[in-house]
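Bug #77: duplicate submission created two jobs. Keeping one. Sequence:
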Amino acid sequence: MPKILQNARETILKEGYILLEEKGYNNFSMRELANRCEIGLGTVYNYFENKMSLVMEIFNNTWTEVIEESRNIKEKDMELEEKIKSIYKNLEKFLKYHKEVFYHITKEDKIVKEKKADSDKCKKNDVMEELYVIVDEIIEVHKENKDITINMETRKLTSFLISNMITLSMKNTEYTIDDFLYILVNKL
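Kept job's structure:
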């Protein structure tokens, strides 16, 4: 018989996070989650409309941690390469368990931006925007310090860095972040 939980929402999120790590988004089951929490399936749906709304909350909570860690990295007195490597490690850890959801969300953001691109009121509601801003600021500081000599617009360089970090962490390639940084440093 299902039990009554004192902190049902928190328990559902905690167990949902574990289930998402174990099974991934595509194999995530609300019924299995309810069983793990020892509550009825209807109780889970009282707190979350559907699987995506639950997974989105888990994703957002975890993404917020990545952003906070990236802000902390930005403030540290470190070489550019070490900052990039630290941000990469945070992304890699995050994407290990959330790549399916991340892909879905960034794909949806792209569709929304394309639809809004026709109007002058196009807002950047991209899930990646906060990370882009942090990396922009890191690049600007290192440009001012003459650590970066490449003559490229900051946002383009940020986009290049982040897209390559995501590609490295999402795909099994023979290249590592160290290889990427070696090439980058020799070009910057």
